[in-house]
């Protein structure tokens, strides 16, 4: 089943939104597969955001995501990448619909609370980067209550 990498950024952690965000993914019916709390180094942030190197906001972005601890997670479920992005809302909070995480909790694009993989390929790459030792295999007993 599909996996997505979701990261609560330092502002989301500092603002006490970890429980709210995890709860939204749980209530939707996605299954938590991995989670860790850590503060990343500059070189690691540059690797995670390597596709954005050269953008005018790149240095500020790296400074922001390394400024405090983050919550790195892997969530599982049919369509979790696309649906997860919808749950996050648009990159710019001003464009994010109410009801989305960014629409409900963010104002500034440079403090937009959360990251989510934008494709299945990115998810695989990001999960390998953030969880190099792999993730625990388990099957939730909720499965048959969420899927036909
Ligand atoms: P993310 O990777 O964090 O999930 O965000 P995204 O795909 O929605 O957006 P992306 O274009 O990949 O940008 C990554 C993060 O960079 C910051 N950003 N700042 N100041 C700006 O114009 C600007 N544009 C992007 C945001 O934190 C964005 O989430």
UniProtKB/TrEMBL annotation:
Its cofactor is Mg(2+). It holds the Pfam family NDK. ATP binds at residues 9, 57, 85, 91, 102, 112. The active site is at residue 115. PROSITE patterns: NDPK (PS00469), NDPK_LIKE (PS51374). GO terms for molecular function: ATP binding; nucleoside diphosphate kinase activity. Keywords: ATP-binding, Kinase, Nucleotide-binding, Transferase. Its EC number is 2.7.4.6. It catalyses: a ribonucleoside 5'-diphosphate + ATP = a ribonucleoside 5'-triphosphate + ADP; a 2'-deoxyribonucleoside 5'-diphosphate + ATP = a 2'-deoxyribonucleoside 5'-triphosphate + ADP. One of its GO terms (biological process) is CTP biosynthetic process. Residues 1-137 form the Nucleoside diphosphate kinase-like domain. SUPFAM superfamilies: Nucleoside diphosphate kinase, NDK. It comes from the Eukaryota. Belongs to the NDK family. This is Nucleoside diphosphate kinase. It comes from Adiantum capillus-veneris (Maidenhair fern).
């Amino acid at each position: 089943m599909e996996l997505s990498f979701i990261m609560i950024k330092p502002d989301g952690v500092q603002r006490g939104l970890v429980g709210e965000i995890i709860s939204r993914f749980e209530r939707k019916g996605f299954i938590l597969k991995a989670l860790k709390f850590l503060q990343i180094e500059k070189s690691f942030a540059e690797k995670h955001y390597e596709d954005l190197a050269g953008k005018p906001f790149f240095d500020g972005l790296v400074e922001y995501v390394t400024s405090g601890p983050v919550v790195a997670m892997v969530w599982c479920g049919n369509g979790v990448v696309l649906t997860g992005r919808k749950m996050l809302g648009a990159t710019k909070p001003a464009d994010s619909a109410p009801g989305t995480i960014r629409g409900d909790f963010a104002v500034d694009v440079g403090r937009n609370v959360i990251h989510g993989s934008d494709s299945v390929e990115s998810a695989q790459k990001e999960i390998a980067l953030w969880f190099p030792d792999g993730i625990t295999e388990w099957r939730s007993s909720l499965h048959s209550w969420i899927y036909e």
